Amino acid sequence: MSVNIDHQKNSITPSTTTLDIDTTGSLVLPRGTIVQRYPSTEGAFRFNTETDYPEIYLNSSWNEVIQVSETPSSGYFIKHNGTKWEATAITSDDIPEGTTNKYFTTAIADTWLATKDTDDLTEGTTNLYFTTVRARASVSGTGDISYDNSTGVISFNNTSGYVKKTDGDSWYHPHGGTSGLDFAVKDLTVHGTSTVINSTIVTIADPVFAIGQNTVTQSKDRGIEFKYNDGSAKIGFFGQDFETSEFKFFLDAVNVSENYSGTIGGFDLSATSVNRLSDVSASDVVVNDFLKFDGTYWVDTVIDLNDLNDVSAASPSTNQVLKFNGTAWAPAADIEGVTEGDAIAFAIALGG
Predict the structure, then answer these.
(1) 224, 239 in Cβ contact below 8 A?
(2) Nearest to 301 by CA among 286, 315, 314, 279
(3) Residue ranges of the alpha helices (H) in 237-335?
(4) How do strand 298-301 and strand 280-281 relate by DSSP bridges?
(5) Are the C-beta atoms of 132 and 152 separated by less than 8 Å?
């Protein structure tokens, strides 16, 4: 292949379409600062000494040639780590969640499980489901206690005279006076319109205290009524308000068919975060709002790219893209018109 060198025009013209530089050394690119870029001709290729990146002039602008650090491996992707492009494996953290196949979270699992009950589970061989017949069959009574497993009724016959009613307090006590009486039963159900436990201290070993029932529709509040006296007899209430489904705490409450109203009691929230919520002003919250501090309060607002610390996109133009300028992601011209052949040529020129 012959090569014609035109010293006047500073050009090399090979006789074929390929210029083969046969050497074991390197091809050193023109080097210089941004102001030393010359010429601004499509396809011009140089090394920018300010950015320390090769660059090429395409589509009327100089564009940085991506350099990828790390050694690539099968299945790797090119990902920007905020400073440079690198070959790395990606995880589910890099992929936005879809609308159908959700990522696992405790909240999602709890929501799904909340729609299930024992009807969705097949009964095992050891932990059997409760049935009235099974419960009644497991209870027995002899002697002074009789039990009818067809009705589930336990009767105390007192045939041995162990329990007697004294004249002093009109209550039944074990034989011999006012000592305690312990019952040891597997299951105990008490039915009645009104059941009163007149005890100064009540201890329940179960860490979860269940009240109310959900087998029939009711419109009553759910919670605890407590009595106190601050000079006059009063009641208070805390629990779920049926009408609003909110937690309520009433002092000097009024009970009307187990729906409560009255003076709303206060809460000591001194250990609560966000300064006891007194610095939050979010009265007009809409879907997808975030809390953002405006210098005085945490207020509800939407967020955009400019709220991200590493993005500066205040005045973008049509068809611009975000490009990392060494400090932040900022609007810049898009790289358009680069073909696969151009990319291969760039890779060859870079020794790829």
Answers:
(1) yes
(2) 286
(3) 273-276
(4) parallel
(5) yes
| pLDDT in single tens digits along all 352 residues of the chain | 455 555 556 677 777 777 777 788 888 888 999 999 888 888 888 989 988 888 899 999 998 887 777 778 887 888 877 777 788 888 888 888 888 888 888 988 888 888 988 888 888 888 888 888 888 888 877 777 778 888 888 876 666 665 555 545 555 555 554 445 555 556 778 877 888 887 788 888 888 888 888 888 889 999 999 999 999 999 999 999 998 888 999 999 999 999 999 999 888 766 664 445 666 766 676 677 777 777 777 777 777 777 777 777 777 778 778 777 777 787 777 766 556 666 666 666 665 5
Q: Which residues 6+ apart lie within 8 Å of 192 measured at CB?
A: none
Structure pTM?
0.32
Q: Using alpha carbons only, what angle is made at residue 348 by residues 345 and 350, rounded to the nearest 5 degrees?
A: 110
Q: Could you give the CA distance from residue 97 to residue 116 in angstroms, rounded to a whole number?
A: 24
Tokens 């052949």 — which residue?
A: 341
